[in-house]
Design brief:
By secondary structure, the protein is an alpha+beta fold. It has helices at 14-18, 66-77, 91-99, and strands at residues 2-7, 28-32, 39-44, 49-54, 57-62, 82-86. The chain has one domain. The protein has 3 helices and 6 strands, in the order E-H-E-E-E-E-H-E-H.
């Protein structure tokens, strides 16, 4: 798995919600108790990417195989503050998580 880190200068997570991590680009929102304008996590079951934003810090995880993505998602789901994956009612995104055996994490 490759991890890239950078600083996101736009100041809040909503720029990512509507842009790079939008549903039209295949991303689901990973809901946690920490979600706010300064924190968010998204996952794409097709490109096997997870993006995390925290107070300007941006981490992008690029998994090299489906098993890596599944492990990363299970690790995230094991966190105390995890609530579920919101595919935003997009059937293709729901199907991607289902195909990977992660349907139980969808809400």
């Amino acid at each position: 798995m490759k991890k890239r880190e950078s600083f996101h200068h736009d100041g809040d997570r909503y720029v990512l919600d509507m842009g790079e991590c939008s549903t039209r680009k295949g991303f689901a929102q990973v809901d946690t108790n920490q979600d706010a304008w300064y924190f968010g996590t998204w996952a794409n079951p097709v490109t096997l990417r997870v993006v995390q934003y925290a107070e300007g810090d941006l981490s992008i995880y690029e998994c090299g195989a489906p098993a890596e993505f599944v492990k990363l998602m299970r690790d995230i789901a094991g966190a105390e503050d995890f609530k579920g994956i919101d595919a935003m009612l997009v059937p293709s995104i729901e199907a991607g998580f289902t195909k990977l055996g992660l349907a139980d994490l969808l809400h």
